[in-house]
């Protein structure tokens, strides 16, 4: 196709500008925060959003702003129907242990480095420059092409809900560049909930677990945990110190300790990963809970909670001992991730992220879990729930996207996927996730040292340009 050849050349011509635009966006630490004035998700998310809208206006696209909750960029078509490209500009917290500045937006050895390069600012910019190249080559779309900008995808989707209530006409179909290639035709159901227990107070003297905290987000594998112990009987911590050394030697894990005033601190370093793929990480909460099992704390409720964790959760990733190890032929096994823990002398709370099979429902999961929680006298606080979605492999949208992927990558072996991740494909009918991670790439979203190669940015823009063209003309 002559148009696509010209568009690909234009993308190459715009490469330096595209990388500069992404670097500008990456430099904004757009972690969703509390409302500030007219900015529903805080100042930094709003800065990233305004940056994107200004970029679009400067290129002659029209924009729509839903009161700072989200918006879109339109490339007007000849007919009233709309094709959607749905992305997001918020990011998860950066965490610790990076080899470069998380928001430095440096280009190192051919990679643009920083939080959001893969999830989802890099793919959004690649899609935008695909639109820009099509426009600069004189393409007049059949259907309007609409890039929708979400601002709280990593948290609770209130912004998307508000945007959808304000915008009027919605896309008939489209894609979100916020998953994996080749194309995703199903997304498992997602549950986020807290497991909680109130502690009775103890006046006994001896070794106390004063606090325990770990993790930064429900949908990430906790890569750090910290416990503070206090011996109210006035005894020292030599036995604890020796236990740390022995545990480190036996397990080969990153566990350290030190005195802090009259108390004793224990820290554990794990390996971060996306909550939908916990097997790619190592949960620091599970490590520290295994370590704490050997102690008899004066508060029996703390001991019971540790015992529950190690017996029922531990290092298991599919709810094997939590009554919810479900599976189906389409999506495989349920995924069970511990994202956060918060414990003090009064209470304990775990934040859990579950991805359940597309043929099941949330009640089956909760019914299984409750039998375990009731045995340990634990409570549950239900939070976020996203229903699973599923589109058959032979659907026209899936077939079209698969054809484009194969053409640009020469990968004829990969098949459409069902994933545990949750994307904005759930928010808009007949929308599917399409990229941006290639099969041979490591999963870097939600992890330290997130980055994307310049070459892959160019490849993404070319793939998305053809996808936009083909879907608009369908």
What does this structure look like?
With 474 residues, the chain is an alpha+beta fold. The protein folds into 2 domains: 2-187 and 389-473, Aminopeptidase, CATH 3.40.630.10; 190-386, 2-Layer Sandwich (Alpha-Beta Plaits), CATH 3.30.70.360. The protein is 32% helix and 27% strand. The protein is built from 11 helices and 24 strands. The strands form 6 sheets. It has an 8-stranded antiparallel beta sheet, with helices on one face. A hairpin with a 2-residue loop joins strand 4 (107-108) and strand 5 (111-113). Helix 1 (2-13) crosses helix 4 (121-136). The mean pLDDT is 96.
Tags for this entry?
single chain; alpha+beta; Aminopeptidase; Alpha-Beta Plaits; eight-stranded antiparallel β-sheet; 24 strands; 27% strand
Note the topology.
Elements: H1 2-13, H2 15-26, H3 43-58, E1 62-65, E2 70-75, E3 79-88, E4 107-108, E5 111-113, H4 121-136, E6 143-150, H5 158-167, E7 173-176, E8 179-180, E9 184-187, E10 189-198, E11 207-214, E12 224-231, H6 238-251, E13 254-260, E14 263-269, H7 284-292, H8 300-313, E15 327-328, E16 332-333, E17 335-343, E18 347-356, H9 362-375, E19 379-386, E20 389-390, H10 396-409, E21 417-419, E22 431-433, E23 436-437, E24 451-453, H11 454-473
Short description:
With 474 residues, the chain is an alpha+beta fold. 32% of the residues lie in helices and 27% in strands. The model has no long low-confidence stretch (mean pLDDT 96).
How many distinct helices? 11
Contiguous low-pLDDT stretches (5 residues minimum) are none
Overall CATH architecture of the largest domain: 3-Layer(aba) Sandwich
Largest sheet: 8 strands, antiparallel
CATH topology of the largest domain: Aminopeptidase
Could you name the CATH homologous superfamily of the largest domain? Answer: Zn peptidases
Please indicate the percent range of residues in DSSP E strands (runs of 2 or more).
25-35%
Mean pLDDT: 96
